[in-house]
Write a structure and sequence with these properties.
It is a single chain. This protein is mainly alpha-helical. It has 27 helices and no strands. It has 2 domains: about 40-80 and about 280-330, no CATH class; about 85-270 and about 345-585, MFS general substrate transporter like domains (Growth Hormone, Chain: A), CATH 1.20.1250.20. The chain has helices at about 5, 10-15, 25-40, 50-60, 70-80, 90-125, 130-155, 160-180, 185-215, 220-225, 225-245, 250-255, 255-265, 275-280, 285-295, 295-320, 330-340, 340-350, 350-370, 375-390, 415-425, 430-435, 440-460, 470-490, 495-500, 510-535, 540-565. Helix 21 (about 415-425) packs parallel to helix 24. The longest helix is centred in the first third of the chain and has 34 residues, at about 90-125. The radius of gyration is 25 Å and the shape is elongated. It is found in: Membrane. Pfam families: Sugar_tr.
Length: about 600
């Protein structure tokens, strides 16, 4: 067991040894020239000169070795570690915004099905049914976990890649959302939402990986957490649309098509993932993509050869072979071509490196469902509605063709509470942008889970208060402000960020598919069974007992993350993750 001092090593010390440092400058130059000649028939010579690639490899070997570079290139390399998101290249910003738009789709449709549920339940006469409305709510997450997430790998195989797969997912999402707004029966709505889940599941497995592979190392956590920021933004906008459409449930459901249609255009504006192109053996395309993402030829050449070298060493390590002659060929591409989709899925659980990443990703993704946030997110209308109803506010909907609330909108407490919850969920995710690469993923998640444990316990206790005015006055600020604040700084942004970066490139698609499956399956089961659990707990303290249950699950998530999830992933390149996951969580730096 290491000492506490040993457990707090820097990320630099946690990296894999740079394989380029095992070569002399002359040997490295010879290696690069041989690599260049092997790739010449595939077009690498058409996009970069060999001298530029040699200079880039020498910088990758020793980042301080800049003396022989032109002043402009030296300035670009020195500035890149200080540059924020707004100082990144246009293509990187477009790529991140594209993946952010994919997140908006998820949050938007999540809140619109919540806000529109009284309308379609009443129109089809199922407002008193328990399981059918729950099944409709849960349908996308169930089909997404079982089918959609696992489609992401086949969609990206061969010549497709991240961008076309994301495009197909956006088409499915847009079509199904529009179809949902046109349904004439609950059976049709259920079918649309089941198909919608396939698009959502595939999209959620593709977009975070796409962002991780495009991002620069020192900003990767911040750029990846754009997924959660814009997911919560989508939730907020979905609730805000209640005002715009005057609670017409069909139009409200249809508004979720807006981000999907925008995504259809954005995917054509961003470059393909350079790591995916390297996986396919297209080094010329990878260099071009890196040139767009990084801004200069020398940075693109440096990253291209460093990624190539680390992938060859990673592959040799996964195969249990010596990596001392990695420079002689493309072992990684041979490994990728030799494994089918089922073999890659199987390798997730039989290779120790993958198995450790799977366990950590499983726990981090599951913690998001155990913490209780989605009980409030999906059932805020029910939870807040019970408070408003007890306090004399009529929140029922009556008009069959276009159900609307009887009371004026400004007097409807449920609408205001939903709006406040959505806004707080969005705003409180933003501070994590500052800390996720500074303090690390694991620490933020532990702080988040600890804070949510105490606030959720308080909210559960407040539901037992008999005085309705006091109850609303306490539940609203605790649920809308304090609980969502703790969620926003850790349990919200960390799971998708963490899962998108921890798997080796050869298994990244299936690894992310597994991670999102865990998250979506947990969410689907939660949405499906929470109403039944509330009823089983009794009519008087059902909501309180339900929230106490999730308080206990929150504590369980904290314990599992503390003991079994390693940290040290911040500011470490994707290829250096192998240095972290052979280590036990107990020896990981915090």
């Amino acid at each position: 067991m290491e000492t506490m001092t040993g457990r707090h090593r820097s990320n630099t010390e946690r990296r894999l040894p740079n394989p380029l440092r095992g070569r002399t400058p002359d040997e490295l130059e010879d290696d690069v020239r041989q690599f260049y000649e092997r790739q010449r028939p595939k077009g690498l010579a058409d996009v970069v000169e060999v001298e530029v690639l040699v200079k880039g490899a020498l910088v990758a070997q020793d980042p301080k070795n800049l003396a022989e570079l032109p002043h402009a290139e030296q300035k670009a390399i020195r500035f890149e570690h200080k540059a924020g998101f707004l100082q990144q290249t246009k293509d990187l910003k477009v790529t991140i915004l594209t993946t952010a738009c994919a997140a908006i789709i998820q949050g938007w449709q999540q809140s619109t099905i919540n806000a529109s549920s009284p309308g379609w339940k009443l129109e089809w006469g199922i407002e008193n049914w328990n399981y059918i409305p729950g099944l409709i709510d849960a349908a996308p997450w169930i089909s997404g976990s079982i089918i959609g997430t696992w489609l992401s790998d086949p969609l990206q195989e061969g010549r497709y890649g991240r961008r076309p797969a994301l495009l197909l997912s956006a088409i499915v999402c847009a079509a199904c959302v529009i179809g949902s707004a046109r349904c004439e029966s609950w059976q049709a709505l259920l079918a649309c939402r089941l198909i919608l889940g396939i698009g959502i599941g595939a999209k959620a497995s593709i977009a975070p990986v796409f962002a991780a592979e495009a991002a620069v190392d020192h900003l990767r956590g911040r750029l990846l957490m754009m997924w959660q920021v814009f997911d919560t933004f989508g939730i907020f906008v979905g609730f805000a649309c209640v005002w715009v459409v005057d609670q017409n449930w069909r139009v409200l459901l249809g508004t979720a098509a807006i981000p999907a249609l925008i995504l259809l255009f954005l995917v054509f504006l961003c470059p393909e993932s350079p790591r995916f192109l390297i996986r396919q053996g297209d080094y010329a395309g990878a260099f071009t993509s890196l040139r767009h993402l990084r801004g200069t030829d020398i940075q693109a050449a440096r990253d291209l050869y460093y990624i190539h070298s680390q992938l060859q060493v990673e592959t040799a390590s996964l195969q249990g072979r010596s990596a001392h002659e990695w420079w002689k060929g493309e072992l990684y591409q041979e490994e990728v071509r030799s494994k089918s989709f089922p073999q890659r899925v199987w390798a997730l659980f039989v290779l120790p490196r993958n198995r450790r990443a799977c366990l950590a990703a499983f726990l981090v993704m599951a913690s998001q469902q155990l913490c209780g946030i989605n009980v409030l997110s999906f059932y805020s209308s029910t939870l807040f509605g019970s408070l408003a109803h007890e306090n004399g506010a009529n929140v029922e909907c009556e008009t069959p063709n276009s159900p609307k609330c009887n009371n004026p909108l400004e007097n409807t407490k449920v609408v205001w509470l939903n709006f406040g919850f959505g806004l707080a969920n969005f705003l409180f995710t933003i501070p994590a942008y500052r800390f996720i690469d500074w303090r690390g993923r694991r620490l933020l998640l532990l702080i988040s889970l600890g804070g949510m444990f105490f606030t959720l316990a308080a909210i559960a206790g407040f539901f037992r208060i008999q005085n309705d005015h006091v109850k609303i006055g306490l539940v609203a600020p605790f649920a809308i402000v304090i609980f969502t604040l703790f969620y926003g700084i850790g349990a919200g942004p960390v799971p998708f960020t963490f899962s998108a970066e921890v798997f080796p490139l050869a298994f990244r698609e299936v690894g992310m598919s597994f991670s999102v499956m865990v998250n979506f399956l947990g969410l689907g089961l939660l949405v499906l069974f929470v109403p039944a659990l509330t009823d089983a707990f009794g009519p008087h303290n059902g909501q309180s007992n339900l929230l106490f249950l999730f308080t206990g699950l929150n504590a369980l998530a904290f314990i599992l993350v503390f003991f079994l999830v390693p940290s040290g992933t911040a500011r470490v390149s994707l290829e250096d993750m192998d240095a972290i996951f052979p280590c036990l969580a107990s020896t990981a730096s915090s």
